Amino acid sequence: MTPSGKPRLSPDGQRLTLDLDDQTHEFAALWLRERAPDAETLDPRTGQRLVEAAELPLDLALAHAELDGDALALRFSDGHATRFPLALLRAERKPLATVAPGRTLWEGDLADPPRASFDEAVKGDDALLALLDDLHRYGFVLVSGVPTDEDGMQGLIDRIGPLRRTNWGGIADVKSVADAYDLTMTQRGLEPHTDNPYRDPIPGYIWLHCLTNAADGGDNTLVDGYRAAQLLAERDPAAFDCLTRVSPGFRYRDETTWLESEGPLIELDGQGRVTRVRYSNRTERVEALPAEELARYYAARRAFYELITSDELTVHLKLDPGQMLIMDNYRLLHGRRAYELAGGVRHLRQGYVDRDSTASRRLVLRRRLAETEEVA
Predict the structure, then answer these.
(1) Which of 5, 60, 193, 353 is the most exposed place for a label (fewest CB within 10 A)?
(2) Quick check: 325 and 141 in contact, CB under 8 A?
(3) pLDDT above 90 covers what percent of the chain?
């Protein structure tokens, strides 16, 4: 959409006002200068800043500003001139929302979960990008055609990874064992939870690969934590606010490991949008806060728990051999129904891949494919 009206400068030149897409936006001259998209300010290859932003004059001003096609032509009081594409300004001034843009929130009536083919994603960049886009958008992907050997998912991890190693090793078994070191390795049902909130950093993505699933029960449950947080904010704003402020601790200990971290059950980014959920009844250790604050926290936690365990938000899946779930551990709450081994064997394998490598792979693939289309 074409901007309406000319850009206006404040009397001191330190603010620029522009009507863009039927909304009025204000930009600081100093911000425009340190973000100037030219080769003198930003490295053309990496996008890293070449000027020392902290050394720019605090009273830096705009000497001139005018529309020049699809860009703003700017000249600053330090003599620097640049063209700032309007598309970049639009990207920076997106309206605030409960969650970051590009996500599709869902509930228990999700009819068709996002799906991908293991073989196609391993062999083709288009299919791999589609998988990663769905993972980013929905918070999980159901992958089919995974080889049913113990390292069957490794081929796809190698395309995205690396594999995150923990005190449990790399890819670990998820099956009932004697003297289980974690409740995952028992037959009991598991409440909705996020994995390993006691680690720093918390693993970004969970890869859960089914080798055999003939036991009675053992269905996986999935809940969109972003949607649960959004509903809590709408239905009980005080509870939402409490869960963004109070940071309980989380702890895991065994004979060789002692892990501790902390964080709110609902974490916001710098723009007030939900960026992470934590929930781990088994490992949470809230401090002995003042009684009134604890009462508020316990009531807020109960309200969140009732949402994440509700039929309204819960999707049920039973994995078949050769299927795999990739789940966003910052967003998805997952659990399972109890199972009985009398019906057969249940054997899954689980690994972690970090968030940064996954996001990087998606963005690099998108850029490469866009460049290929431009050349073609």
Answers:
(1) 5
(2) yes
(3) 77
